[in-house]
Amino acid sequence: MILALAAPVVALPTGTGYSATISNHLIREYTHIMNILLPIASYLIGAIPFGLLIGRLAGVDVRASGSGNIGATNVTRLAGKKLGVLTLLLDVLKGFLPIYIASTLLPQGSGREFLLLLCGICAVVGHMFPVYLGFKGGKGVATGVGVLLFLSPVAVAITVAVFVATVALTGFVSAGSLLGAGLSPLWLWLLGESAGAIATGIIIALLIWIKHHENIGRLVRGEEKTWKSP
Questions:
Q1: Overall average pLDDT of the 175-179 stretch
Q2: CA distances from 120 to 128, 169, 171 (A)
Q3: Within a domain: 65
Q4: Is residue 21 part of a domain?
Q5: pLDDT per residue over 201-228, tens digit each?
Q6: Distance (Å, rounded) from C-alpha 160 to C-alpha 164?
C-alpha cells in the first residue's frame, strides 16, 4: 500500500486590508533602517576633508601652513582664490546634499522633519570632527550654510550679506563667520520657519562659535589675522 504524502496547503489572506498591512510594515521597516543609515551617512559625507585634498593636489598641506585650518579661507591663502572657491562650494555641498538626499528617501511621517534636521547637524559635526582626520576638522561655517540653504535660501542670502559686510568693514573672516552664524536663527524665526529649523540654526551656530574659540580670543587681544594675511 502506497501512502501519498501531501504538504498542507495554507491559504494566505487576500484583499486590500492585508495588502495595506504588509505595505505599512514594509514602510516602517524601511523608515527604521533609514533612521539609522542616513545620519551616519550624513556624518561621513560631512567628514570628507575637501580642503585638505584640494590643498594636496596643489602641493600644499593646509594643516601645516597658514591658520592650519582645512577650510576655504586657509586654502585661499595657500593655494589661490580658484581652489579656495572650489573648496567653499564643496563644503557647502556637504551640508546641503545629505539633508536633500534624506528628504527624497524618507516617506512622510511625524518624525520626518526631525530626521532631516538631524542629518544636517550630523553633516556639520562631520566637518568639524572628521573620523578621517582623527576628529580634527574645520569650523563648519560653509557646511552650516549648506544646511541653511536647504532650510531657507532667503535666510542664506541675508546671512551671506551680513558676512560680506562684516568682512568688508573689519577685514576678519572670523568676525563675519561669527556674526553671520549667530544671527542666522533670528532670520529663520523672522521668516516663519519651523521651531525645529530654528533650533537647528541655534545648534549649528553654537557649534561654530565653539570651534571659533581661539579666533574669539585673538579678536579680543587684537591678534587675529585679516583675510589678506599670509
A1: 96
A2: 13, 31, 29
A3: yes
A4: no
A5: 999 999 999 999 999 999 999 888 886 6
A6: 6
| 123: containing domain | 35-221
Q: Would you state the pLDDT for residue 102?
A: 94
Question: How many CA atoms, within 13 angstroms, populate the side-chain half-sphere of residue 217?
Answer: 5
Identify the burial level of 196 via C-beta atoms within 10 angstroms of its C-beta, where 0-12 means exposed, 13-18 middle and 19 or more buried: middle
DSSP assignment letter at 66: T
pLDDT tens per residue across span 17-58 = 556 566 776 777 777 888 899 999 999 999 999 999 999 999
Q: Are 77 and 66 spatial neighbours (Cβ–Cβ below 8 Å)?
A: yes
pTM exceeds 0.90, yes or no: no
Q: How far apart are CA 188 and CA 74, in angstroms?
A: 29
User: In this structure, what C-alpha cell is assigned to residue 70?
Assistant: 582645512
Do 37 and 77 touch, CB atoms closer than 8 A?
A: no
C-alpha cell at 98: 545629505
Q: What is the CA radius of gyration of the chain?
A: 24
User: Residue 2 CB: number of other CB atoms within 10 A?
Assistant: 4
When divided into structural domains, the chain yields a total of 1
Note whether residue 228 is domain-resident.
no
The three-point CA angle 200-70-118 to 5° equals 20
Give CA separation, 194 vs 20, 146, 161, in Å: 32, 18, 23
Residue 3: inside a domain:
no
